[in-house]
Write a structure and sequence with these properties.
about 650 residues, alpha+beta, Phosphorylase Kinase, domain 1, Transferase(Phosphotransferase), domain 1, 3 domains, eight-stranded mixed beta sheet, 19 helices
Length: about 650
């Protein structure tokens, strides 16, 4: 019965007989970054390895001998034991917790130590019998890692699964090898997330992510990479409430030949790549913690393939909005968590999953990120975080789709601030970031709003896209294509059923991109008034900049007289329209459809020659200005 339960991993165990507090350090996670750094920076005294045995030295792990314990003692006192057990030292239980989930080459048992002379007497442990050669190699590696990490016992006991020792028997062939390690509850983190009563909240996500990052940073600070960070390998101990990052059987050293090797550059590259791999795994774990839909293998496959194709992770929100269910009356909880604090969660997720390994965030920087610090620990945001927050808030306002005057004013403020903080003002940067498909979110120009007018054609406008392509890297010419999807309703009134004849209007033009400046003309210095969207937009923004709140964020003491922009010079335009079916109504003509489209769509999207400059661009957002000063806000589309 025990063997069957061990192989298939069925049944559950009570957590009342978890490891006693004598072997664990009880410590609350306060999440303080200062406390974490002080712990991590403390240097311990060196270690001396002494092996206690009978008259003979301790044999290798695969051999039989009288030696019982290999003690790693610290010169300051105390130590950690790598003990050699016998199978008779344990009372094997007839059930195995599902969260222990062994591999195909492992057989997992739960047992209680019954040797009264053992310091683990009456403590529940896990016996992991390693069958294959590769599995035995993992077990021996776990003991090697123990000897490296146990020098700092506080961190080791808090974030590792505590390898106690092994059972080795040469009875058959090269001998069997069973690893003995701590028991930390019935469920892995994956099983906790799959519980029906598990409710992801912002605070729970912060606690789990902070503890996970502290544990991973503990490994990285000791020259080790985990290489196997998955929800299945991580447990939450009910005793000390810490995340246990596994038995570390596949942990890899940063330096193959030691940190003082002559191949220092290669070692640094290896270290950077291994840290980046671990951080990417942490990003996947964070995504599954927050977005429960990603626990579905099919949805997670789409999520992972999006990143594997080289798409920028900063566009994850636009991509996930298309595949995640938003039919709930209260909305998607995960999306709301990531949208909090000016979209800080999306920023952290994009940094963890960055396409280039060199761009991925480290553990310490992630612990200082605003998403994980929250209101208790205020951190000074970087300029990148400020730009991200302005853009994310502008996008969220546009999604409310009720554009009253306060909302329109806020959008104008945010767009102006984004333009002032634009980090990519050179034409070279624009030529690299512009190509792609952009979806129109908002225009600061004329808004139709609710109206009682009776149009000649009932046209429902769908998504409006701007596709930008660069023909060659040798010149600065780029092609713009405006795609306006629409549906022509049947009948004179607006029906509840919005089905009808679908169509698409395309406008093509070629632009030449050069450097330029956008001048802000003050009204008292010119006889003519130049409008930039709202009549008093500049005066209102100047008041904002003088306020204490924005003065800390924007590097301008007063409203600038000009800003660098990407100047757009248009050639001829070409307009084509296609309909999915013939028009049945006599009073609806193609010309009336085009007229209605021009009424509802910003004029710059119909007549591309009215676009005169680009004022802001990054990997996910784009702002273009028209000849009348109105701003068009786009987001990069992933469809």
């Amino acid at each position: 019965m025990a063997a069957t339960a061990a192989i298939y991993g069925v049944g559950f165990c009570s957590v009342s007989d978890i490891l006693s507090t004598k072997k664990l350090i009880k410590r609350r996670v306060n999440g303080s970054i200062i406390g974490v750094r002080s712990i991590c920076s403390r240097r311990e005294v060196g270690t001396v390895v002494r092996c206690s045995s009978s008259s003979k030295a301790v044999a290798p792990l695969e051999s039989e001998g009288d030696g019982r314990t290999c003690v790693i003692e610290e010169e300051g006192g105390g130590g950690g034991d790598v003990m050699r057990f016998k199978m008779s030292d344990f009372k094997v239980l007839d059930r195995v917790s599902i969260g222990l989930g062994g591999r195909a080459d492992e057989v997992v048992f739960e047992a209680i130590v019954k040797d009264s002379n053992s310091p683990l007497h009456n403590i529940k442990v896990v016996l992991r019998k390693l069958v294959s050669t590769q599995a035995k190699r993992r077990g021996m590696r776990a003991i090697e890692v123990l000897k490296k990490l146990v020098r700092r016992k506080l961190m080791y006991h808090s974030y590792s699964m505590q390898v106690y020792g092994y059972i080795s028997s040469p009875s058959s062939g090269r001998g069997s090898f069973t690893l003995v390690h701590g028991y930390h509850g019935s469920f892995s983190l994956r099983h906790w997330l799959q519980q029906s009563d598990w409710l992801p909240t912002l605070e729970i996500t912060r606690i789990l992510m902070r503890d996970l990052l502290i544990g991973v940073n503990y490994l990285h600070s000791h020259g080790l990479a985990h290489t196997e960070l998955r929800l299945e390998n991580v447990h939450i101990s009910p005793v000390d409430r810490h995340i246990k990052v596994g038995i570390l059987g596949n942990a890899a050293d940063f330096y193959e030949d030691g940190p003082n090797s002559s191949t220092l550059d290669n070692n640094m590259d290896r270290r950077q790549m291994m840290i980046a791999f671990d951080m990417r795994c942490v990003g996947f774990m964070m995504a599954k913690m927050v977005l429960r839909e990603l626990m579905d293998p099919l949805i997670f496959l789409k999520f992972k393939s999006f990143l594997m194709k080289g798409n920028d992770p900063s566009c994850l929100r636009e991509f996930l909005l298309q595949i995640l269910s938003r039919n709930s009356p209260s909305g998607n909880v995960g999306l709301q968590i990531l949208d909090r604090n000016w979209g800080a969660g999306w920023n952290l997720l994009s940094l963890l999953l960055a396409t280039k390994p060199s761009k991925r965030i480290s553990c310490l920087d992630a612990l200082r990120h605003p998403f994980l610090c929250g209101p208790r620990w205020r951190v000074a945001p970087s300029m990148d975080i400020i730009r991200w927050g302005l853009g994310s808030t502008a996008v969220r306002i546009t999604e409310e789709y009720i554009y009253k005057q306060p909302q329109r004013n806020r959008l104008s403020y945010f767009i102006e601030l984004m333009e002032m903080l634009n980090a990519h003002s050179r034409p070279k940067n624009w030529l690299e970031l512009l190509p792609g498909k952009w979806r129109l979110l908002y225009c600061t120009g004329r808004q139709i709003g609710l109206t009682l007018r009776q149009p000649s054609a009932r046209v429902l406008i769908g998504d409006v896209y701007l596709t930008i392509n660069r023909a060659s890297k040798l010149n600065t010419s780029i092609s713009f294509t405006s795609d306006i999807g629409f549906t022509v309703m049947n009948g004179r009134d607006w029906p509840h059923d919005k089905s009808g004849i679908t169509g698409k209007l395309e406008v093509n033009s070629v632009f030449r991109l050069t450097s330029g400046r956008r001048l802000y003309l003050k009204e008292e210095k010119t006889s003519e008034k130049l409008s930039f969207g709202q009549p008093n937009n500049q005066d209102s923004l100047a008041q904002k900049l003088s306020a204490k709140k924005w003065g800390k964020l924007v590097p301008y003491k007063e409203f600038p007289s000009s800003l660098p922009v990407a100047k757009l010079v248009s050639a001829d335009i070409e307009v084509t329209m296609s309909l999915g079916d013939n028009l049945d109504q006599n009073d609806v003509t193609p010309s009336s459809i085009v007229h209605e489209i021009r009424v509802q769509v910003p004029p710059e999207m119909f007549d591309l020659s009215r676009l005169v400059c680009g004022t802001y661009v990054d990997s996910r957002l784009l702002v273009l200005r028209g000849v009348n000063g109105s701003a068009l806000l786009f987001t990069r589309s992933m469809c």
